[in-house]
Design a protein that fits this description.
Elements (H helix, E strand, L loop, with lengths): L1 H12 L9 H9 L12 H31 L8 H22 L1 H14 L14 H36 L4 H4 L6 H48 L1 H8 L4 H7 L3 H5 L15 E2 L2 E2 L18 H53 L3 H36 L8 H13 L7 E2 L3 E2 L2 H27 L1
Antiparallel strand pairs: 1-2, 3-4
Helix pairs in contact: 2-8, 3-4, 3-8, 4-8, 4-12, 5-12, 6-8, 8-12, 8-13, 9-12, 12-13, 12-14, 12-15, 13-15
Length: about 450
């Protein structure tokens, strides 16, 4: 059993470099028009197909808020009586904005994906402990599959249940589609239109959350690799100078204890690796069994290892800036939409309490929680870079490596935070603020309604 476990760990450490970290995002984004079916069109029909499909998605999505506006215009009483209908229209309006934004900024989207696949490391620096991006990549992929399945299930229930109720009770579909439908032919047409529209709405809203969460997980994975490489900087120099991994293992087993509970997704293994970052080593078995870790002869290679860590810090910071620049306007949209939606759902629950409204409340709160939770994970793991630097056996280094290590520490003083609108940090504190703000707006609506009834 122990032998099989060791072989499994070795296979994990010596995997081939991952070429595409976000391939699982492409197909759902294509279905909702946020990703071109032909990413690099060379023929005229490919260009036409991309534009026609995007136009179809936008037309179907825009049909829902337009139908809502017509319904409100014909049956308007006052805003308090129409809050339920207005709340139902918020997700469709947000979906149109999301798809339109992705369509306008596809160049920036593709640049972000290319930067990820071209600059992210799959393996850590070869050291006493080693790790790969495999677990963070799998976590991002599995989350994307699970969340997409949940989105499609909820859309299916949202579409089918009202039809079942209509067929069972003969009640009109008007509260659902904002139009009077009585004939079977029209019911079928409306049903198909609603299926397509709600699928697009669910995918647009859900895939934005998946896009944010998956990229946040991958960013945390890179921070894990950086922390591991930074802790092992001195051991990387020793291994480069021919010291055997087994000799280091015998003298420094406590490093694994220092690393425990310090990584978000990936885990380090105290085993030798065939890779130094993504460069496969041909002759990597050392011959030295005795060494002096304080020897200044290792300072040059230690400095080289720290230089590589500094370059990795630069890649992470550049990626974070590109990622934030792309998603920041969409995050503002989602924060505003969710705040208003929660407020209106709370008011609807006050007027008429039912389990459907409670389920909507829970689903909307969970939706924005995804953004805040994974944003907090980025902050937490970025803060651990300083801890990794302190645990890098700095006391065994000479003056030059220590100066480099100090520069790395100073460059990581600013927190790595993804902000909505570049002013609102996406973290768990923001989630609490959104819930409090929604409840404040809800109490305001209740007070306004009570004053209106008194008059």
């Amino acid at each position: 059993m122990m032998k099989k476990s060791c072989e499994k760990n070795l296979e994990t450490l010596n995997i081939e470099t991952i070429g595409n970290y976000t391939h699982f995002l492409e197909l759902p984004l294509k279905f909702v028009g946020c990703w071109d079916w032909f990413r690099k069109p060379k023929r005229e029909y490919e260009i036409i197909a991309n534009h026609v499909y995007l136009s179809l998605v936008l037309f179907v999505l825009a049909n829902l808020p337009i139908s809502l506006i017509v319904h409100l215009q014909t049956e308007w009483v006052d805003i308090m009586h129409s809050l339920n209908e207005i709340a139902d229209g918020l997700p469709s309006v947000a979906s149109v904005a999301i798809v339109a934004y992705f369509a306008l900024y596809k160049k920036e989207l593709y640049e972000l994906i290319n930067y990820t696949n071209g600059n992210f490391k799959c393996h850590s620096a070869r050291g006493l402990t080693n790790m790969t991006m495999l677990k963070s990549y799998r976590a991002a992929r599995n989350f994307a599959f699970f969340y997409t399945a949940c989105t499609l299930f909820s859309v299916t229930m949202y579409v089918i249940l009202p039809v079942i109720v209509h067929l069972w009770t003969k009640q009109p579909l008007q509260p659902w589609v904002y139009t009077d439908v009585t004939r079977t032919t029209f019911i079928v047409f409306v049903f198909l239109r609603q299926c397509l529209a709600q699928a697009f709405v669910g995918l647009a809203m859900g895939q934005l959350g998946i896009f944010f969460a998956s990229n946040a997980i991958l960013l945390c994975g890179q921070l894990d690799l950086l922390c591991c490489s930074l802790r092992n900087a001195r051991y990387t120099a020793l291994l480069h100078n021919g010291v055997q991994h087994s000799a280091l293992l015998a003298a420094h087993k406590d490093l694994l204890e220092d690393e425990r509970h310090n990584y978000m997704y990936n885990t380090s293994e105290m085993r030798d690796s065939n890779y130094h970052y993504d460069d496969k080593l041909r002759h990597f078995i050392g011959h030295k069994t005795s060494y002096n870790i304080y020897n200044p002869a290792y300072d040059a290679d230690t400095s080289a290892a720290l230089h590589e860590c500094a370059r990795m810090c630069q890649v992470i910071n550049e990626y974070k800036m590109k990622f934030e620049a792309f998603v920041s306007p969409l995050l503002v949209l989602r924060v505003v939409q969710v705040t208003l939606y929660l407020c209106m759902l709370l008011y609807a629950a006050t007027e008429k309490f039912d389990m459907v409204t409670v389920e909507y409340l829970a689903a909307v709160a969970l939706d924005i929680f995804v953004y805040c939770y994974y944003g907090s994970q980025i902050i937490l793991q970025a803060d651990r870079v300083s801890t990794a630097a302190y645990q890098s056996s700095w006391h065994t280094m000479g003056p030059r490596p220590r100066r480099l290590l100090l520069n790395i520490l100073l460059s990581n003083r600013r927190p790595v935070v993804v902000r909505a609108g570049k002013f609102l940090p996406m973290d768990l504190h923001t989630f609490v603020v959104i819930i409090k703000t929604s409840f404040s707006y809800y109490t305001l609506l209740v007070n306004v309604n009570e004053k209106g009834e008194r008059k």
